[in-house]
Amino acid sequence: MFFLRIATLVFLIFTCSFFNQIHGRPHSHAHKKHLHPISHVSFPPSPAPEAVSPTYHEPAVFNVRSFGAVGDGVSDDTQAFKLAWDTACQAEESATLLVPNGYIFMIQSCIFTGPCKSVLTFQKIDGNIVPPDGPDSWPRYSSRRQWLVFYRINGMTMEGSGVIDGRGEKWWDLPCKPHKGINGKTQPGPCDSPVAIRFFMSSNLTVQRLEIKNSPQFHFRFDGCQNVHIEMLTIKSPAQSPNTDGIHIDNTNNVKIYNSVISNGDDCVSIGTGCHNVDIRNITCGPSHGISIGSLGNHNSRACVYNVTVSESVIKHSDNGVRIKTWQGGAGSVSKVIFNNIHMDTVRNPIIIDQYYCLSKNCLNQSSAVFISAISYSNIKGTYDVRSPPMRFACSDSVPCTNLTLYEVELLPAQGNIFTDPFCWNAYGTMQTLTIPPAFCLIEGNPLSLPQNDVVQC
Ligand SMILES: *[C@@H]1O[C@H](CO)[C@@H](O)[C@H](O)[C@H]1NC(C)=O
Ligand SMILES: *[C@@H]1O[C@H](CO)[C@@H](O)[C@H](O)[C@H]1NC(C)=O
Ligand SMILES: *[C@@H]1O[C@H](CO)[C@@H](O)[C@H](O)[C@H]1NC(C)=O
Ligand SMILES: *[C@@H]1O[C@H](CO)[C@@H](O)[C@H](O)[C@H]1NC(C)=O
Ligand SMILES: *[C@@H]1O[C@H](CO)[C@@H](O)[C@H](O)[C@H]1NC(C)=O
Protein backbone atom coordinates (compact mmCIF):
# COMPACT_ATOMS: atom_id res chain seq x y z
CA MET A 1 0.00 0.00 0.00
CA PHE A 2 1.11 3.53 -0.50
CA PHE A 3 0.07 5.28 2.68
CA LEU A 4 2.38 3.80 5.23
CA ARG A 5 4.37 6.80 6.21
CA ILE A 6 3.57 7.98 9.68
CA ALA A 7 3.52 11.65 10.42
CA THR A 8 3.83 13.06 13.90
CA LEU A 9 0.69 14.64 15.16
CA VAL A 10 1.13 18.00 16.67
CA PHE A 11 -2.44 19.02 16.81
CA LEU A 12 -5.38 19.20 14.57
CA ILE A 13 -7.18 22.24 13.47
CA PHE A 14 -10.22 22.39 11.35
CA THR A 15 -12.08 25.45 10.28
CA CYS A 16 -15.19 25.59 8.22
CA SER A 17 -17.94 28.01 7.78
CA PHE A 18 -21.11 26.38 8.85
CA PHE A 19 -24.41 27.50 7.74
CA ASN A 20 -27.41 26.38 9.58
CA GLN A 21 -29.87 25.53 6.89
CA ILE A 22 -32.85 24.98 9.10
CA HIS A 23 -32.64 28.36 10.72
CA GLY A 24 -31.27 30.05 7.67
CA ARG A 25 -28.57 31.90 9.55
CA PRO A 26 -24.92 31.31 10.34
CA HIS A 27 -23.90 29.79 13.64
CA SER A 28 -22.95 32.62 15.89
CA HIS A 29 -19.57 31.09 16.67
CA ALA A 30 -18.70 29.71 13.28
CA HIS A 31 -16.68 32.63 12.02
CA LYS A 32 -15.52 34.53 15.04
CA LYS A 33 -12.18 32.77 15.17
CA HIS A 34 -10.00 31.57 12.40
CA LEU A 35 -7.95 28.43 12.93
CA HIS A 36 -9.08 27.43 16.36
CA PRO A 37 -7.22 24.41 17.70
CA ILE A 38 -9.47 21.57 18.75
CA SER A 39 -8.09 19.81 21.77
CA HIS A 40 -10.55 16.96 21.86
CA VAL A 41 -11.58 14.90 18.93
CA SER A 42 -15.21 15.26 18.07
CA PHE A 43 -16.70 11.82 17.89
CA PRO A 44 -19.36 11.11 15.36
CA PRO A 45 -22.99 10.89 16.36
CA SER A 46 -24.60 7.49 16.69
CA PRO A 47 -25.02 5.24 14.83
CA ALA A 48 -21.33 4.47 15.08
CA PRO A 49 -19.34 5.07 11.92
CA GLU A 50 -18.27 2.28 9.64
CA ALA A 51 -14.67 3.15 10.39
CA VAL A 52 -12.90 -0.13 10.10
CA SER A 53 -10.24 -0.47 12.73
CA PRO A 54 -6.91 -0.49 10.98
CA THR A 55 -5.69 -3.95 10.28
CA TYR A 56 -2.00 -4.05 9.59
CA HIS A 57 -1.11 -2.19 6.37
CA GLU A 58 -4.75 -1.49 5.52
CA PRO A 59 -5.93 2.09 5.69
CA ALA A 60 -8.93 2.71 7.90
CA VAL A 61 -11.88 3.98 5.91
CA PHE A 62 -13.92 6.91 7.16
CA ASN A 63 -17.05 7.22 5.10
CA VAL A 64 -18.57 10.70 5.27
CA ARG A 65 -22.05 9.15 5.21
CA SER A 66 -21.30 7.45 8.51
CA PHE A 67 -20.63 10.88 9.93
CA GLY A 68 -24.00 12.22 8.92
CA ALA A 69 -23.47 13.41 5.35
CA VAL A 70 -26.70 13.18 3.38
CA GLY A 71 -25.47 13.57 -0.17
CA ASP A 72 -28.69 14.75 -1.77
CA GLY A 73 -27.00 17.78 -3.32
CA VAL A 74 -29.06 20.14 -1.17
CA SER A 75 -28.39 19.35 2.48
CA ASP A 76 -25.36 21.00 4.00
CA ASP A 77 -22.80 18.25 4.50
CA THR A 78 -20.02 20.50 5.76
CA GLN A 79 -20.30 19.36 9.36
CA ALA A 80 -20.17 15.69 8.40
CA PHE A 81 -17.04 16.24 6.34
CA LYS A 82 -15.53 18.06 9.29
CA LEU A 83 -16.21 15.18 11.65
CA ALA A 84 -14.92 12.62 9.18
CA TRP A 85 -11.79 14.68 8.60
CA ASP A 86 -11.16 15.18 12.32
CA THR A 87 -11.34 11.47 12.90
CA ALA A 88 -9.37 10.39 9.83
CA CYS A 89 -6.68 12.94 10.51
CA GLN A 90 -6.17 11.55 14.01
CA ALA A 91 -6.11 7.91 12.96
CA GLU A 92 -2.99 6.09 14.06
CA GLU A 93 -1.73 4.88 10.74
CA SER A 94 -3.08 5.52 7.29
CA ALA A 95 -6.60 6.68 6.75
CA THR A 96 -8.95 7.07 3.84
CA LEU A 97 -11.71 9.57 3.93
CA LEU A 98 -14.32 8.10 1.63
CA VAL A 99 -16.78 10.19 -0.33
CA PRO A 100 -19.01 7.40 -1.63
CA ASN A 101 -20.27 6.93 -5.14
CA GLY A 102 -23.89 7.69 -6.00
CA TYR A 103 -24.31 10.88 -3.95
CA ILE A 104 -23.84 14.61 -4.40
CA PHE A 105 -22.42 16.31 -1.34
CA MET A 106 -22.86 20.04 -0.85
CA ILE A 107 -20.09 21.54 1.23
CA GLN A 108 -19.25 25.11 2.02
CA SER A 109 -16.00 26.98 2.10
CA CYS A 110 -13.85 24.91 4.40
CA ILE A 111 -10.26 24.63 5.60
CA PHE A 112 -9.01 21.11 6.28
CA THR A 113 -6.00 21.56 8.48
CA GLY A 114 -3.16 19.33 9.57
CA PRO A 115 -0.69 18.16 10.41
CA CYS A 116 -2.40 14.81 10.60
CA LYS A 117 -1.23 11.86 12.59
CA SER A 118 -2.14 9.61 9.71
CA VAL A 119 -1.08 9.67 6.12
CA LEU A 120 -4.31 10.42 4.39
CA THR A 121 -5.98 9.57 1.21
CA PHE A 122 -8.58 12.27 1.93
CA GLN A 123 -10.19 11.78 -0.62
CA LYS A 124 -11.30 8.80 -2.18
CA ILE A 125 -13.80 11.02 -3.94
CA ASP A 126 -16.14 8.60 -5.65
CA GLY A 127 -19.23 10.72 -5.18
CA ASN A 128 -19.73 14.23 -6.46
CA ILE A 129 -18.97 17.36 -4.47
CA VAL A 130 -20.52 20.79 -5.06
CA PRO A 131 -20.37 24.17 -3.27
CA PRO A 132 -23.37 26.41 -2.63
CA ASP A 133 -24.73 27.53 -5.98
CA GLY A 134 -23.27 30.91 -6.82
CA PRO A 135 -22.52 34.15 -4.96
CA ASP A 136 -26.08 34.66 -3.67
CA SER A 137 -26.07 31.28 -1.93
CA TRP A 138 -22.53 31.68 -0.59
CA PRO A 139 -22.69 32.14 3.17
CA ARG A 140 -22.12 35.77 3.96
CA TYR A 141 -19.21 35.23 6.30
CA SER A 142 -17.40 32.57 4.29
CA SER A 143 -14.34 33.38 2.28
CA ARG A 144 -15.21 34.22 -1.30
CA ARG A 145 -11.68 33.53 -2.38
CA GLN A 146 -11.49 29.82 -1.75
CA TRP A 147 -13.76 26.86 -1.41
CA LEU A 148 -11.89 23.74 -0.26
CA VAL A 149 -8.54 24.41 1.37
CA PHE A 150 -5.95 21.93 2.62
CA TYR A 151 -3.52 23.57 5.00
CA ARG A 152 -0.36 22.14 6.55
CA ILE A 153 -0.89 18.63 5.26
CA ASN A 154 2.14 16.43 4.81
CA GLY A 155 1.42 13.36 2.75
CA MET A 156 -1.97 13.12 1.16
CA THR A 157 -3.47 11.55 -1.92
CA MET A 158 -6.63 12.87 -3.46
CA GLU A 159 -8.28 10.72 -6.09
CA GLY A 160 -11.53 9.10 -7.10
CA SER A 161 -14.12 8.48 -9.75
CA GLY A 162 -16.41 11.33 -8.65
CA VAL A 163 -16.68 14.82 -10.06
CA ILE A 164 -15.94 18.03 -8.23
CA ASP A 165 -18.26 20.59 -9.75
CA GLY A 166 -17.47 24.19 -8.79
CA ARG A 167 -20.81 25.51 -10.13
CA GLY A 168 -19.04 28.55 -11.49
CA GLU A 169 -21.67 29.88 -13.88
CA LYS A 170 -23.18 32.52 -11.60
CA TRP A 171 -19.73 33.74 -10.59
CA TRP A 172 -18.59 34.10 -14.19
CA ASP A 173 -21.65 36.23 -14.94
CA LEU A 174 -21.13 38.76 -12.14
CA PRO A 175 -21.23 42.30 -13.59
CA CYS A 176 -17.64 42.82 -12.40
CA LYS A 177 -16.41 40.08 -14.73
CA PRO A 178 -15.04 41.10 -18.14
CA HIS A 179 -17.85 42.42 -20.35
CA LYS A 180 -20.61 41.16 -18.06
CA GLY A 181 -21.77 44.56 -16.78
CA ILE A 182 -24.37 46.86 -18.30
CA ASN A 183 -23.92 47.27 -22.06
CA GLY A 184 -21.12 44.74 -22.12
CA LYS A 185 -18.91 46.86 -19.86
CA THR A 186 -16.90 45.58 -16.96
CA GLN A 187 -18.19 46.98 -13.70
CA PRO A 188 -15.46 48.10 -11.29
CA GLY A 189 -15.23 46.90 -7.71
CA PRO A 190 -14.23 43.81 -5.79
CA CYS A 191 -14.82 40.67 -7.73
CA ASP A 192 -13.58 37.84 -5.51
CA SER A 193 -14.52 34.40 -6.67
CA PRO A 194 -13.43 31.19 -5.01
CA VAL A 195 -10.56 28.98 -6.09
CA ALA A 196 -12.08 25.50 -6.06
CA ILE A 197 -9.26 23.57 -4.39
CA ARG A 198 -6.30 25.16 -2.68
CA PHE A 199 -3.35 23.42 -1.10
CA PHE A 200 -1.48 25.81 1.15
CA MET A 201 1.84 25.19 2.93
CA SER A 202 1.60 21.47 2.36
CA SER A 203 3.94 18.81 1.08
CA ASN A 204 4.08 15.37 -0.44
CA LEU A 205 0.79 15.66 -2.22
CA THR A 206 -0.63 13.49 -4.94
CA VAL A 207 -3.73 14.48 -6.85
CA GLN A 208 -4.71 11.93 -9.45
CA ARG A 209 -7.46 10.34 -11.50
CA LEU A 210 -10.01 12.94 -10.65
CA GLU A 211 -12.37 15.16 -12.59
CA ILE A 212 -13.03 18.75 -11.69
CA LYS A 213 -15.10 21.22 -13.64
CA ASN A 214 -16.63 24.69 -13.70
CA SER A 215 -14.62 26.33 -10.96
CA PRO A 216 -15.67 29.91 -10.13
CA GLN A 217 -11.96 30.83 -10.39
CA PHE A 218 -8.74 28.69 -10.55
CA HIS A 219 -9.53 24.97 -10.34
CA PHE A 220 -6.41 24.15 -8.33
CA ARG A 221 -4.00 26.43 -6.58
CA PHE A 222 -0.86 25.22 -4.85
CA ASP A 223 0.97 27.88 -2.87
CA GLY A 224 3.84 27.34 -0.49
CA CYS A 225 3.90 23.61 -1.26
CA GLN A 226 6.59 21.04 -1.93
CA ASN A 227 6.63 17.73 -3.73
CA VAL A 228 3.42 17.88 -5.66
CA HIS A 229 2.51 15.12 -8.07
CA ILE A 230 -0.45 15.58 -10.33
CA GLU A 231 -1.46 12.76 -12.60
CA MET A 232 -4.39 11.93 -14.90
CA LEU A 233 -6.60 14.86 -14.04
CA THR A 234 -9.46 16.07 -16.14
CA ILE A 235 -10.23 19.75 -15.79
CA LYS A 236 -13.09 21.24 -17.75
CA SER A 237 -14.67 24.68 -17.97
CA PRO A 238 -16.06 26.66 -20.88
CA ALA A 239 -13.69 28.70 -23.03
CA GLN A 240 -15.50 31.87 -21.96
CA SER A 241 -15.22 31.33 -18.20
CA PRO A 242 -13.00 34.10 -16.79
CA ASN A 243 -9.91 33.32 -14.74
CA THR A 244 -10.51 29.61 -14.54
CA ASP A 245 -6.85 28.52 -14.69
CA GLY A 246 -6.57 24.75 -14.51
CA ILE A 247 -3.62 24.42 -12.16
CA HIS A 248 -1.90 27.44 -10.68
CA ILE A 249 1.27 27.11 -8.65
CA ASP A 250 3.25 29.72 -6.80
CA ASN A 251 6.07 29.43 -4.28
CA THR A 252 5.86 25.73 -4.92
CA ASN A 253 8.75 23.44 -5.81
CA ASN A 254 9.31 19.95 -7.11
CA VAL A 255 6.12 19.72 -9.06
CA LYS A 256 5.18 17.06 -11.58
CA ILE A 257 2.11 17.54 -13.70
CA TYR A 258 1.58 14.56 -15.98
CA ASN A 259 -0.94 12.98 -18.32
CA SER A 260 -3.81 15.38 -17.85
CA VAL A 261 -6.45 16.92 -20.05
CA ILE A 262 -7.41 20.54 -19.46
CA SER A 263 -9.83 22.87 -21.23
CA ASN A 264 -10.93 26.15 -19.69
CA GLY A 265 -11.17 29.90 -20.03
CA ASP A 266 -7.66 30.80 -18.90
CA ASP A 267 -4.24 29.15 -18.61
CA CYS A 268 -4.18 25.35 -18.43
CA VAL A 269 -1.21 25.63 -16.12
CA SER A 270 0.14 28.90 -14.72
CA ILE A 271 3.40 29.18 -12.87
CA GLY A 272 3.81 32.10 -10.52
CA THR A 273 6.76 33.43 -8.59
CA GLY A 274 8.95 31.28 -6.39
CA CYS A 275 8.59 28.09 -8.40
CA HIS A 276 11.45 25.86 -9.49
CA ASN A 277 11.93 22.25 -10.52
CA VAL A 278 8.64 21.97 -12.34
CA ASP A 279 8.09 19.18 -14.83
CA ILE A 280 5.00 19.23 -17.02
CA ARG A 281 4.51 16.38 -19.42
CA ASN A 282 1.79 14.98 -21.65
CA ILE A 283 -0.83 17.64 -21.15
CA THR A 284 -3.62 18.10 -23.65
CA CYS A 285 -4.53 21.73 -23.30
CA GLY A 286 -7.32 23.64 -24.98
CA PRO A 287 -9.41 25.46 -25.71
CA SER A 288 -7.59 27.66 -23.22
CA HIS A 289 -4.98 30.36 -22.88
CA GLY A 290 -2.11 27.89 -23.00
CA ILE A 291 0.65 27.09 -20.54
CA SER A 292 2.11 30.17 -18.87
CA ILE A 293 4.91 31.32 -16.69
CA GLY A 294 3.56 34.47 -15.08
CA SER A 295 2.36 36.97 -14.85
CA LEU A 296 5.41 38.02 -12.86
CA GLY A 297 6.72 41.28 -11.45
CA ASN A 298 3.40 42.97 -10.81
CA HIS A 299 3.60 46.11 -8.61
CA ASN A 300 7.39 46.18 -8.96
CA SER A 301 7.70 42.82 -7.25
CA ARG A 302 10.61 40.46 -7.50
CA ALA A 303 9.98 37.12 -9.14
CA CYS A 304 12.10 34.01 -9.47
CA VAL A 305 11.27 31.04 -11.60
CA TYR A 306 13.78 28.49 -12.87
CA ASN A 307 14.17 24.94 -14.05
CA VAL A 308 10.80 24.45 -15.68
CA THR A 309 10.21 21.86 -18.40
CA VAL A 310 7.09 21.52 -20.50
CA SER A 311 7.19 18.56 -22.89
CA GLU A 312 5.24 15.98 -24.89
CA SER A 313 2.11 18.09 -24.93
CA VAL A 314 -0.62 19.27 -27.26
CA ILE A 315 -2.04 22.78 -27.20
CA LYS A 316 -5.11 23.36 -29.34
CA HIS A 317 -7.54 26.16 -30.15
CA SER A 318 -5.94 28.44 -27.61
CA ASP A 319 -5.05 32.10 -27.36
CA ASN A 320 -1.48 31.23 -26.49
CA GLY A 321 0.75 28.21 -26.63
CA VAL A 322 3.76 28.49 -24.37
CA ARG A 323 3.93 31.91 -22.80
CA ILE A 324 6.13 33.89 -20.44
CA LYS A 325 4.48 37.10 -19.28
CA THR A 326 5.90 39.77 -17.02
CA TRP A 327 4.83 43.26 -15.98
CA GLN A 328 7.12 46.18 -16.45
CA GLY A 329 8.91 47.36 -13.36
CA GLY A 330 9.57 43.95 -11.83
CA ALA A 331 12.84 42.34 -10.76
CA GLY A 332 14.32 38.86 -10.48
CA SER A 333 14.48 36.36 -13.31
CA VAL A 334 13.02 33.50 -15.29
CA SER A 335 15.68 31.08 -16.46
CA LYS A 336 16.38 27.52 -17.52
CA VAL A 337 13.06 26.86 -19.13
CA ILE A 338 12.65 24.11 -21.70
CA PHE A 339 9.69 23.76 -24.03
CA ASN A 340 10.15 20.51 -25.90
CA ASN A 341 7.98 18.39 -28.22
CA ILE A 342 4.86 20.44 -28.23
CA HIS A 343 2.24 20.17 -30.90
CA MET A 344 0.24 23.30 -31.65
CA ASP A 345 -3.15 23.14 -33.30
CA THR A 346 -4.65 26.48 -34.36
CA VAL A 347 -3.04 28.51 -31.60
CA ARG A 348 -2.95 32.30 -31.72
CA ASN A 349 0.45 32.95 -30.17
CA PRO A 350 2.16 29.56 -30.11
CA ILE A 351 5.44 30.98 -28.80
CA ILE A 352 5.28 34.21 -26.86
CA ILE A 353 7.32 36.23 -24.41
CA ASP A 354 5.46 39.34 -23.32
CA GLN A 355 7.33 41.67 -21.00
CA TYR A 356 4.70 44.38 -21.43
CA TYR A 357 1.90 42.47 -19.77
CA CYS A 358 -0.72 44.95 -18.73
CA LEU A 359 -4.43 44.50 -18.14
CA SER A 360 -5.45 48.12 -18.48
CA LYS A 361 -3.61 49.14 -21.66
CA ASN A 362 -2.17 52.21 -19.95
CA CYS A 363 0.75 50.81 -18.00
CA LEU A 364 3.70 53.21 -18.01
CA ASN A 365 7.05 52.16 -19.39
CA GLN A 366 9.46 51.43 -16.58
CA SER A 367 13.17 50.83 -16.48
CA SER A 368 13.35 47.57 -14.58
CA ALA A 369 12.05 44.15 -15.55
CA VAL A 370 12.16 40.49 -14.71
CA PHE A 371 15.24 39.19 -16.57
CA ILE A 372 14.45 36.37 -18.99
CA SER A 373 17.28 34.07 -19.95
CA ALA A 374 18.10 30.55 -21.17
CA ILE A 375 14.74 29.65 -22.66
CA SER A 376 14.84 26.75 -25.07
CA TYR A 377 12.15 25.92 -27.63
CA SER A 378 12.66 22.62 -29.41
CA ASN A 379 10.39 20.55 -31.61
CA ILE A 380 7.51 22.95 -31.47
CA LYS A 381 5.38 22.11 -34.49
CA GLY A 382 1.91 22.58 -35.82
CA THR A 383 -0.40 25.38 -36.83
CA TYR A 384 -1.21 28.90 -35.75
CA ASP A 385 -4.11 31.24 -36.10
CA VAL A 386 -2.92 33.98 -38.50
CA ARG A 387 -4.38 36.83 -36.47
CA SER A 388 -1.07 36.95 -34.56
CA PRO A 389 2.53 36.14 -35.48
CA PRO A 390 3.47 32.57 -34.51
CA MET A 391 6.48 33.76 -32.54
CA ARG A 392 6.54 36.88 -30.48
CA PHE A 393 9.48 37.88 -28.32
CA ALA A 394 8.52 41.25 -26.83
CA CYS A 395 11.35 41.73 -24.36
CA SER A 396 11.89 44.64 -22.05
CA ASP A 397 13.48 47.83 -23.43
CA SER A 398 15.89 48.02 -20.54
CA VAL A 399 16.47 44.35 -19.74
CA PRO A 400 16.84 42.26 -22.89
CA CYS A 401 15.97 38.57 -23.05
CA THR A 402 19.12 36.52 -23.56
CA ASN A 403 20.02 33.05 -24.70
CA LEU A 404 16.74 32.14 -26.36
CA THR A 405 17.29 29.04 -28.47
CA LEU A 406 15.08 27.67 -31.20
CA TYR A 407 15.52 24.16 -32.53
CA GLU A 408 13.17 22.45 -34.97
CA VAL A 409 10.41 24.99 -34.67
CA GLU A 410 7.95 24.67 -37.55
CA LEU A 411 4.72 26.59 -37.44
CA LEU A 412 2.33 26.91 -40.35
CA PRO A 413 -0.91 28.83 -40.67
CA ALA A 414 -4.01 26.81 -39.82
CA GLN A 415 -5.51 28.63 -42.79
CA GLY A 416 -4.68 31.74 -44.76
CA ASN A 417 -1.30 33.18 -45.58
CA ILE A 418 1.98 32.40 -43.90
CA PHE A 419 3.41 35.04 -41.60
CA THR A 420 6.92 35.82 -42.73
CA ASP A 421 8.00 37.90 -39.80
CA PRO A 422 8.07 36.73 -36.26
CA PHE A 423 8.09 39.66 -33.85
CA CYS A 424 11.20 40.36 -31.81
CA TRP A 425 12.07 43.27 -29.58
CA ASN A 426 15.34 43.26 -27.69
CA ALA A 427 15.52 39.47 -27.94
CA TYR A 428 18.95 37.81 -28.04
CA GLY A 429 19.25 34.22 -29.12
CA THR A 430 19.91 31.72 -31.87
CA MET A 431 18.14 29.55 -34.36
CA GLN A 432 19.96 26.24 -34.09
CA THR A 433 18.02 25.02 -37.10
CA LEU A 434 16.22 27.15 -39.64
CA THR A 435 12.78 27.69 -38.18
CA ILE A 436 9.48 28.11 -40.02
CA PRO A 437 8.95 30.98 -40.23
CA PRO A 438 12.61 31.95 -39.83
CA ALA A 439 13.32 33.98 -36.72
CA PHE A 440 15.94 36.25 -38.31
CA CYS A 441 14.86 38.96 -35.93
CA LEU A 442 16.67 37.36 -32.98
CA ILE A 443 19.84 39.27 -32.15
CA GLU A 444 22.97 37.14 -32.04
CA GLY A 445 25.40 37.16 -29.19
CA ASN A 446 24.96 38.89 -25.89
CA PRO A 447 23.84 42.42 -25.13
CA LEU A 448 26.48 44.93 -24.05
CA SER A 449 24.88 45.51 -20.71
CA LEU A 450 23.13 42.90 -18.68
CA PRO A 451 21.38 43.30 -15.38
CA GLN A 452 23.65 43.09 -12.39
CA ASN A 453 24.05 39.62 -11.05
CA ASP A 454 22.86 40.56 -7.61
CA VAL A 455 19.69 41.94 -9.13
CA VAL A 456 18.81 38.77 -10.96
CA GLN A 457 20.24 36.19 -8.60
CA CYS A 458 17.40 34.01 -7.45
C1 LIG B 1 8.01 14.13 2.04
O1 LIG B 1 8.29 12.76 1.84
C2 LIG B 1 9.67 12.48 1.83
C3 LIG B 1 9.88 11.04 1.38
O2 LIG B 1 8.85 10.22 1.82
C4 LIG B 1 10.23 12.73 3.21
O3 LIG B 1 11.60 12.46 3.25
C5 LIG B 1 10.01 14.21 3.54
O4 LIG B 1 10.42 14.48 4.84
C6 LIG B 1 8.55 14.59 3.38
N1 LIG B 1 8.45 16.05 3.43
C7 LIG B 1 8.12 16.71 4.51
C8 LIG B 1 8.09 18.19 4.41
O5 LIG B 1 7.85 16.14 5.53
C1 LIG C 1 -0.92 10.89 -21.93
O1 LIG C 1 -2.05 11.26 -21.17
C2 LIG C 1 -3.24 10.64 -21.62
C3 LIG C 1 -4.40 11.27 -20.89
O2 LIG C 1 -4.28 11.14 -19.51
C4 LIG C 1 -3.12 9.15 -21.42
O3 LIG C 1 -4.28 8.50 -21.86
C5 LIG C 1 -1.92 8.64 -22.20
O4 LIG C 1 -1.72 7.27 -21.94
C6 LIG C 1 -0.68 9.41 -21.81
N1 LIG C 1 0.42 9.05 -22.68
C7 LIG C 1 1.57 8.60 -22.21
C8 LIG C 1 2.61 8.30 -23.22
O5 LIG C 1 1.78 8.42 -21.01
C1 LIG D 1 15.25 20.46 -12.37
O1 LIG D 1 13.99 19.93 -12.04
C2 LIG D 1 13.88 18.53 -12.16
C3 LIG D 1 12.48 18.15 -11.80
O2 LIG D 1 11.58 18.73 -12.67
C4 LIG D 1 14.87 17.84 -11.25
O3 LIG D 1 14.81 16.45 -11.45
C5 LIG D 1 16.26 18.34 -11.55
O4 LIG D 1 17.16 17.80 -10.62
C6 LIG D 1 16.31 19.85 -11.46
N1 LIG D 1 17.62 20.33 -11.88
C7 LIG D 1 18.40 21.01 -11.07
C8 LIG D 1 19.70 21.44 -11.64
O5 LIG D 1 18.08 21.27 -9.92
C1 LIG E 1 6.70 51.71 -24.09
O1 LIG E 1 7.74 51.12 -24.83
C2 LIG E 1 7.32 50.39 -25.98
C3 LIG E 1 8.53 49.71 -26.57
O2 LIG E 1 9.59 50.61 -26.70
C4 LIG E 1 6.65 51.34 -26.96
O3 LIG E 1 6.19 50.62 -28.07
C5 LIG E 1 5.47 52.02 -26.26
O4 LIG E 1 4.91 52.97 -27.12
C6 LIG E 1 5.92 52.69 -24.97
N1 LIG E 1 4.75 53.14 -24.25
C7 LIG E 1 4.69 54.34 -23.67
C8 LIG E 1 3.41 54.65 -22.95
O5 LIG E 1 5.62 55.14 -23.68
C1 LIG F 1 21.92 29.06 -22.76
O1 LIG F 1 20.80 28.24 -22.38
C2 LIG F 1 21.08 26.86 -22.43
C3 LIG F 1 19.81 26.13 -22.05
O2 LIG F 1 18.75 26.56 -22.83
C4 LIG F 1 22.21 26.50 -21.50
O3 LIG F 1 22.51 25.13 -21.64
C5 LIG F 1 23.44 27.34 -21.82
O4 LIG F 1 24.42 27.10 -20.86
C6 LIG F 1 23.08 28.80 -21.82
N1 LIG F 1 24.22 29.57 -22.27
C7 LIG F 1 24.69 30.63 -21.62
C8 LIG F 1 25.84 31.32 -22.24
O5 LIG F 1 24.18 31.00 -20.58
Description of the structure:
The strands form four sheets. Strands 5, 7, 10, 13, 14, 16, 18, 20, 22, 24, 26, 28, 30 and 32 form a 14-stranded parallel sheet that branches. This protein has 458 residues and is mainly β. A hairpin with a 4-residue loop joins strand 2 and strand 3. Residues 1-14 and 17-49 have low confidence and may be disordered. It has a domain at 267-451 and 454-458: Single-stranded right-handed beta-helix, Pectin lyase-like (Pectate Lyase C-like, 3 Solenoid). The longest helix is centred in the N-terminal third of the chain and has 13 residues, at 78-90. It is globular, with a radius of gyration of 24 Å. The two termini are 39 Å apart. It contains three helices and 32 strands. It has helices at 78-90, 169-172, 453-456, and strands at 12-16, 19-20, 25-26, 37-38, 60-63, 72-76, 94-99, 104-106, 110-113, 119-125, 128-130, 146-151, 154-159, 163-165, 195-200, 203-213, 220-223, 226-236, 247-250, 253-263, 269-271, 275-285, 291-296, 302-316, 320-326, 331-347, 349-354, 371-384, 391-394, 401-413, 423-425, 427-431.
Entry summary:
With 458 residues, the chain is mainly beta. It has helices at 78-90, 169-172, 453-456; strands at 12-16, 19-20, 25-26, 37-38, 60-63, 72-76, 94-99, 104-106, 110-113, 119-125, 128-130, 146-151, 154-159, 163-165, 195-200, 203-213, 220-223, 226-236, 247-250, 253-263, 269-271, 275-285, 291-296, 302-316, 320-326, 331-347, 349-354, 371-384, 391-394, 401-413, 423-425, 427-431.
